[in-house]
Amino acid sequence: MDTPFESPEVKIQVHCPQCRGDIAFLEEAHVIRCEFCGSLLFVTGREGVLRYVFPVQVQDSQNAQTLAIEHLKTLGRRSPRPIEAFLFHAPFWRMQGSVYRWIFGLKPMKVEINSGAPPPMERMKILLSRVLDHTIPGTIGLDLGLDNLGVRSQALVLRVLDREYLEKENSFLPLETTLEQAQREAERFSNLFFEAQDLLTEYTLNGFVGRTFSVVYFPIWFVACQHEGGEEVLLLDAVGKKMLQMAPDESGLQRKLKDEKSSLPFALQELSLLPFRCPNCGWTFPFRPYSALHFCETCRRLWGEKSGEWAEFPYQRTLSPQTEPAQKLFWVPFWRCRAMVVSGGERLETMADLYRLAPPPRVFNREKEA
Ligand SMILES: [Zn+2]
Ligand SMILES: [Zn+2]
Predict the structure, then answer these.
(1) In this structure, are residues 172 and 262 in contact, taking their beta carbons and an 8 Å threshold?
(2) Is there a domain that residue 299 lies in?
(3) pTM of the full predicted structure?
(4) Which residues contact 5 (CB under 8 A, 6 or more apart)?
(5) How far, in Å, is the centroid of ligand 1 from the Cα of 52?
(6) How many angstroms separate the alpha carbon of residue 217 from the centre of ligand 1?
(7) What is the pLDDT of residues 158-194, one digit of tens each?
């Protein structure tokens, strides 16, 4: 009874630290291979809020002006000519995650009944799930003709916004919507359009997991033109080459672009690429692009990311080396999660702790159940 669970394929573009080639990889990949120099790289730094930018398709102002003039001609403006054109970037919050909803309720049974009598009901539970991937504007109170990025962020390659890009391009609208506001919006979106059919709902349980928030900058051309009827400003989508807005709030836009906040250096969280080799012995790990942790087959240590660096993770195994015919086995990893409940100074960590608080109706072995 699940709704279709479609995960969009999003590609991220970075520079290879070895050869400077442009590598595009699937967003969920942890390990990537540079197609130019063959280097294996471990992608780290995703713990914070990352910033991306859409690759600009309309590169120079000449092309932008030509597009604007063509558009004005279709509107019947006479002898339009460009006066000014510049490119700027508008920030959007991108909110992603998976939403789950258990619905417990009553459903009419499909049985023959006498007319007039209500059908008998049966108890049902249904699990609904969907992928949430939505964008909201990061600049407040400015109509750019673009409320959200639609499916653009799911269909194109996103480039990591790095220092190199910031030095090349300098026109960015300020990011005014806070992360907390974006989180509240994501919470609201996760509860929208999510109902079970033919079910009389009694109780629901919601889960919104794997939340990630990133900032995506969208490039827009500002083109001012003159024609026989006067002057006009157009905003052009520098990716899809479409008109976004005629006669925008020009002074508001200029003011925000000159805003000190937008010229301040960004507190950047950057993706970084580490050599995909064991930090202890230098041996290359087996290439498993979607694994979070990597096992060194040479020194038999387990590695993963902590704060952008390689860190060793402890592991245990269920057989002792003596009993193991090593070549004939393959190993299946399990995460071991330990939980405890702390309430009013009480600390419950084991079954014995629980039984002390809520004694079972039987004799228990205090040592064994600890
Ligand atoms: Zn390379
Ligand atoms: Zn090693």
Answers:
(1) yes
(2) yes
(3) 0.77
(4) 129, 130, 131
(5) 21
(6) 26
(7) 888 877 787 787 788 988 888 889 999 999 988 876 6
